[in-house]
Structure formats: C-alpha cells, structure tokens
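Researcher: Re-running this chain for the archive, since the previous output was lost when a drive failed. Same request as before.
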Amino acid sequence: MTSQRTRERLLGRLLEQGIKSMEVLDIMRSTPRHIFLDEALAHRAYEDVALPIGHNQTISQPYIVARMTEACVMGGKLDKVLEIGTGSGYQTAILASLAKKVYTIERIKPLLDKAKKKLKLLKLRNIDYKHDDGTLGWEEKAPFDAILTTAAPQTVPNELLRQLADGGRLVIPVGGEGQQKLKLITKKDEEFREDVLNLVRFVPLLKGQLHR
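Model: Regenerated structure tokens:
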C-alpha cells in the first residue's frame, strides 16, 4: 500500500513531468503522504491525483505540490514561509522540511487540529499554526521569503503582496470555479513580476468564513 516502490514510481512520474529540484523530490520521497489521508483512501496516497480530506477540501495532487514547492525553493533562501490553507498538513510538512520556519493558516478548525496531530507525528517543530482568514496573511510575522496559497482567490489579495520580503515569491492559484492560473509573483524593489506556471483547479479561497 505504501511501499517504497510505489513512491519511487510517483517520483519518476514527477521527473517526467518536468520537476527539476532534487531537493524537493527527496523531501517528497521521505514524507509519508498516506498518513495525511483517511484510512479508506490511504492506498491511493501515491497516485498523482488530488483526494478528498473532508469539509469539501482536498489534498493537492503531488505534481502540483512539487511544482509549487519548487517555485518557492528555486528563488533563494527560505527562512520564513507563510502557507495559506493548512488542509491535511501534507504541503505544510514538505515546506517545513525545506524552510527554517513555516507559518500556516487554516480557516477550518477541525482540519487544522487534525493536521497538527499528523505533523507532530513527523516531529516537525518549526511550524506555527493559526485558525484565521487566510486572505489577511499573518502581518505580525511578515515579511516572508515565500507565501504559498493552497486555495484560489478571484484576484490576488493585496495583503499577501505587502507581506512579501524583497526578493520574496508568492505562489498562488487565481481565478473562479473551473480552471485557474497558478501564478508565481516575485517582489523586487517594490515591483512585482508575474509568471504563469500552470493551469490548475483548486478549491476557492474564502474571505472571512471561519469554521469551528
């Protein structure tokens, strides 16, 4: 179900799809995706697909996790990273294995509580958690070297742009229901450069709708 061979097959597929960062691939090799899924779906953990985690949310497709993480890593240092949308905690685990400090925000309290337990199992102690509206970012901890958003707003929140460090990267899906654009926005000397990485489909980033 969770054999090394199954994981290696997935990593081979990610390489074929253009993932270049061996650092990211090595972390994904050693991070057990199956523990972030309910038991009934754990046998599908190393398929390259998004899977449900409850509350109308999903754990992202491994290729998209790798693509987004690579975009963060290849831009330079990762002392402080902000993740919007903790979800299952899988993307959080990948980031926490690469960055000095990860700050993660989730609006759905039961998902956040469950993710905390899974991440503690992996002995990842460089993560701060917050139950809040992700569109606001985490101003008191800014600026961030990278901000990664696992849900799609209609437009890029200005709050997130303001919380980037100089040279910082915002990796964010943008658009309405259906197809969205995964964007990499880089800040340099108060100017922003925008690149489109992929066409994607994420759950919406909802403003002000906290769930306890």
